[in-house]
Amino acid sequence: MSDPDISVVICVYTEDRWEDILAAVSSVRAQSRPALETLLVVDHNTPLLDRLAKEYKESAQVRVLANAGPRGLSAGRNTGIAAARGDVLAFLDDDAVAERDWLRHFAAGYADPRVMAVGGRTVPIWASGRRPDWFPEEFDWVVGCTYKGLPPGRVQVRNVLGGNASFRRSAFDAAGGFATGIGRDGDKRPLGCEETELCIRLTRARPGAILLIDDSAVIHHRVPETREHFGYFRTRAYAEGLSKALVARSVGTDKGLESERRYATRVLPAGVARGLRDAALARPGGAGRAGAIVAGVLTAASGYVVGSLRARRGTTTFSVAAIEEARSTRSEPEAEETSPTVSQPETEEARPTVSQPETEEARPTVSLTETEEGGV
User: Fold this and answer.
1) Nearest-CA neighbor of 353 among 312, 320, 310?
2) Per-residue DSSP letters for 352-364?
3) For the range 253-257, what are the long-range contacts, defined as Cβ-Cβ under 8 Å and sequence gap of 24 or more?
4) CB burial class (10 A; 0-12, 13-18, 19+) of residue 46?
5) What is the mean pLDDT of residues 149-160?
6) CA–CA distance, 292 with 135 (Å, rounded to integer)
7) Paired strand residues for 90
């Protein structure tokens, strides 16, 4: 697949991001390597669904869909996967804009048939106009962005980051869709890790699969003012611990925490040292950054402990959507499409339970550089 057709999926949930949504779609339309289509998946918000349908009623390239599963980002993505027609599916956050060559860099990564996913670099756009002095770059994953510690270039990773990522369609045929019950539900629960769990499940289903991050595939992600405060930093770190516990419960701690161990023992200590050095040199925010790293680690660890107890008791579960089944029930597009398709949510169907992890299979050696920090 030297030149795959790419469908872009953008999941949306609130009219508060109306201008951001329009900007995200415009950035896809302006790509140097055109997308086959853009799918806007609306998460259980009928007024927003209707408004977007009217906005793009004259567009043959933009399709507006209702989330056909339970509320949340994972089910929204699965709805987009089921409806998309491309060989590759790219995912873009609703409050982000892609640089002009974003899809071109994604497409280049699939020249190797073993590559099943390609992610990119996400750069924060701070609402205040600048990074808070105390906010460590090592924790940029807290605001959905690429964090300090990932090596430059195009490198192999354990998992890509969902807000700026692409997958072959065959990846979902092999591994199923994003797990529901683990990721975000609007702004109610700042959880994550659904892409981590999917990527680990994918490499187990396809032991020879290669997953890449290419830092040339750049998007710019808005960080609202509410997320520039330490309160959100702490809440998000705690939620990450909860999510990691679910992932580890599903795939085992060896694979589920493989990159996190390297991140915690190499990247974060170096960040603390830099912060203390900056403090000694009277540079702004040095002590704050060092303290935030320590606080973030302790908070995430406490979330992991609580999440592990909940998972062990069976009070928190998640399930994997059967994408192939959903694809088989969708209607085929008409030959000449003059307006976006608007699908109403179906009744919720029972999801298959997550199978227990198999024994770890050795992955074949590849000629690419393996990154030591594959994503938090």
Assistant:
1) 320
2) PBPPPP-PPPPPP
3) 254/360, 255/158, 255/200, 255/357, 255/360, 256/196, 256/200
4) exposed
5) 91
6) 7
7) 8, 166
- Rounded to whole angstroms, how far apart are CA atoms 123 and 270? 21
Q: What are residue 125's DSSP bridge partners? A: 222
Closest CA relative to residue 81, chosen from 36, 41, 114, 27: 41
Contact partners, residue 288, CB within 8 Å, separation at least 6: 133, 134, 275
Contact 43, 13 (CB under 8 A): yes
How many Å is the maximal CA-CA distance in the chain? 67
Cα dihedral across residues 330, 331, 333, 337: positive or negative: negative
Q: Given this model, what pLDDT does residue 37 score?
A: 98
Q: Which two tokens stand for residue 79?
A: 């709805």
User: Hey, what are 91's tokens?
Assistant: 């995912």
Among the listed residues 285, 294, 280, 299, the one whose alpha carbon sits nearest the alpha carbon of residue 242: 299
What are the strands, taking DSSP E only, across 69-209?
88-92, 96-98, 115-126, 154-156, 164-168, 179-180
Report the DSSP beta bridge partners of residue 218. Answer: 121
> Measured between alpha carbons, how far is 85 from 211 in angstroms, rounded to an integer?
22
Count of beta carbons in the 10 Å neighbourhood of residue 335: 5
Predicted confidence band of residue 180 (pLDDT cuts 50, 70, 90): confident
Enumerate residues 6+ apart whose C-beta is below 8 A from 2.
110, 111
Q: How far apart are CA 319 and CA 191, in angstroms?
A: 15
What is the pTM for the complete model shown?
Answer: 0.82
| pLDDT greater than 60 at residue 184 | no
For residues 64 and 208, give the distance between their C-alpha atoms in angstroms, rounded to a whole number: 35
Distance, CA of 4 to CA of 170 (rounded, Å): 12
Q: Measured between alpha carbons, how far is 163 from 253 in angstroms, rounded to an integer?
A: 24
Name which of 147, 156, 14, 38 is nearest 91 in CA terms: 38
pLDDT at 312: 79
Type of residue at 91? F
Q: Which amino acid is at 284?
A: P
